[in-house]
């Protein structure tokens, strides 16, 4: 996975928890706890195996090309969304969601270099930094994961928590959040 794709959203959600939001984050791996080597060589200890219905929100980071090749992961992504979990993708993590069929015919976005492929796979590509289609939320390239997480905090916990997190991080949400009606 790409480091910024997971650590940006985790940072936002962690600060939201400290600001009083009822948020708890957990890093998960599809098969079992263990170490993940990221795109730039960072090694991350992942303490928990992924259980499809054990969250309210699952964020799939980019750089997860191995996940696209796993039929079990793709089936579990469908199960996750069917269980009522909001499934989100950052950057090319959206392509994993596409491989699972979750973006077919739905508004979505991804890294600008993968948008044509996402459209070819049936996604309705929207030119926005974050696209919110209810139980599917997608974000463009790398740093847009921060904006996705800030949007989710705004949507689920309210703007005052999101503003508090922005202040702590000295970051302001960028770009447009496109929302389905």
3D architecture notes:
With 181 residues, this protein is α/β, with parallel strands linked by helices. It has one domain: Class I glutamine amidotransferase (GATase) domain (Rossmann fold), CATH 3.40.50. The protein is 39% helix and 19% strand. It is built from 7 helices and 11 strands. The chain has a 5-stranded mixed sheet with strand order 5-6-10-9-11, sandwiched between helices. Helix 6 packs antiparallel against helix 7 (159-169). The N and C termini lie far apart (32 Å).
Average pLDDT rating: 95
Beta-strand share of residues: 15-25%
Low-confidence stretches: none
Separation of termini?
Answer: 32 Å
**Level-1 CATH class name:** Alpha Beta
Alpha plus pi helix count? 7
State the oligomer.
single chain
General form: globular
Biggest sheet details: 5 strands, mixed
What's the CATH H-level superfamily name? Class I glutamine amidotransferase (GATase) domain
CATH topology: Rossmann fold
Q: Would you tell me the structural class of the helices and strands?
A: alpha/beta
Write the H/E string, N to C. HEEEEEHHEHEHEEEHHE
Return Rg in Å.
15 Å
């Amino acid at each position: 996975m790409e480091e910024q794709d997971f650590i940006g959203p985790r940072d936002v959600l962690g600060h939201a928890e400290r600001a009083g939001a009822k948020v708890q984050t957990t890093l998960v791996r599809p098969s079992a706890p263990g170490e993940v080597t990221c795109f730039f060589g960072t090694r991350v200890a992942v303490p928990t195996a992924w259980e499809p219905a054990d969250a309210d929100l699952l964020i799939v980071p980019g750089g997860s090309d191995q996940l696209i090749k796993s039929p079990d992961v793709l089936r579990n992504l469908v199960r996750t969304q069917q269980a009522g979990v909001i499934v989100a993708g950052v950057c090319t993590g959206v392509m994993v969601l596409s491989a699972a069929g979750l973006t077919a015919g739905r508004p979505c976005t991804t890294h600008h270099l993968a948008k044509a492929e996402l459209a070819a796979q049936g996604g309705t590509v929207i030119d926005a930094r974050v696209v919110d289609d209810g139980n599917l939320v997608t974000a463009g390239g790398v740093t847009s994961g921060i904006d996705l997480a800030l949007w989710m905090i705004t949507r689920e916990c309210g703007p005052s928590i999101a503003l508090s997190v922005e202040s702590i991080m000295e970051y302001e949400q960028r770009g447009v959040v496109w929302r389905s009606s």
